[in-house]
Design a protein that fits this description.
Structural class: mainly alpha
Largest sheet: 2 strands, antiparallel
Distance between the termini: 51 Å
Number of helices: 11
Number of strands: 4
Shape: elongated
Length: 272
């Protein structure tokens, strides 16, 4: 395969075609193909029609024609580089996989999201309690809180916080650990699965053929392959000691953890 860009504009630039894609096309598409905000100036309309801007409409038609012309010129330039049958077989397999889809466990996805929310709620509550800040997720507020305890920091990104941990103790150390914990959990991929699943319980169209220049098919949509790993690195787990500490603090303060979170922490704490 020729590893050409995925966009028509990109292919046109690489092949240096004469009739390249018109640059103003994106603005014209937004104007005519997307709803608009009703205002006094536009008469309260929610759509732009051809008669609302005849000159733009003419340019829009020229833009569409130019796209077809660019595609024809690209096809002409590539006529001596037919796709090998072996690649076509892979393409057909790719489409078959997309059409069949991948069965997903919606209960697992829902519980993962629920557990994440419970964990964030508990951890954020502790950050509020510890600091007294109106927003313990605010970098500026956390920096101010640390400065009040003679700890001056330039950055609170993950690397900087990890480097600071060995030099701190007490409330400062606990707050830094909380920041790492809050930044560690992400269920966006599970939420993407929930949005993408079809009525048959499967996610379709996960692969984009030659979406990755070097490795062939790329993930699309929920990036399911990023979740289904045979071996997950240890850095994504809470240590048994950390889990035990959370359980002890909750018990000492008489706070009841959500059942799912408590069971997960107890199981990990027992693995020490």
């Amino acid at each position: 395969m020729l590893a050409l860009p995925l966009s028509l504009d990109g292919v046109g630039e690489v092949l240096n075609i004469q009739r390249k894609k018109l640059k103003e096309g994106a603005d014209l598409l937004r104007y005519f193909s997307m709803p608009c905000k009703p205002t006094k100036a536009n008469g309260g309309r929610t759509r732009n029609r051809p008669w609302d801007a005849p000159e733009k409409w003419q340019r829009f038609k020229e833009y569409c024609i130019r796209d077809v012309d660019a595609e024809r010129e690209i096809r002409q330039k590539l006529r001596n580089y037919p796709i090998p049958e072996s690649e076509m077989e892979l393409y057909r397999l790719d489409q078959e996989i997309n059409d069949r889809g991948v069965m997903v466990d919606l209960v697992l996805a829902a519980q993962a999201v629920k557990c994440d929310r419970a964990f964030k709620t508990h951890t954020t509550a502790r950050a509020y309690e510890l600091t007294g800040l109106s927003n313990p997720n605010s970098i500026a507020q956390v920096k101010g809180w640390l400065e009040g305890r003679d700890v001056v920091v330039e950055s609170l990104d993950k690397k900087a916080v990890k480097n600071m941990l060995p030099q701190t103790d007490g409330e400062v150390r606990e707050m830094l650990e909380l920041r790492l914990l809050l930044g560690k959990t992400s269920v966006k991929k599970y939420e993407a699965i929930q949005r993408s699943v079809c009525s048959d319980g499967r996610v379709h169209g996960l692969l984009q053929f030659y979406g990755a220049n070097r490795t062939g098919s790329a993930d699309a949509g929920s990036t399911l392959s990023a979740i289904l790993q045979a071996s997950v690195p240890d850095k994504y787990y809470l240590s048994p000691k950390a889990c035990l500490g959370i359980l002890r603090r909750a018990s000492a303060r008489g706070k009841e953890l959500p059942e799912i979170l408590r069971l997960a922490l107890e199981r990990q704490a027992a693995s020490a």
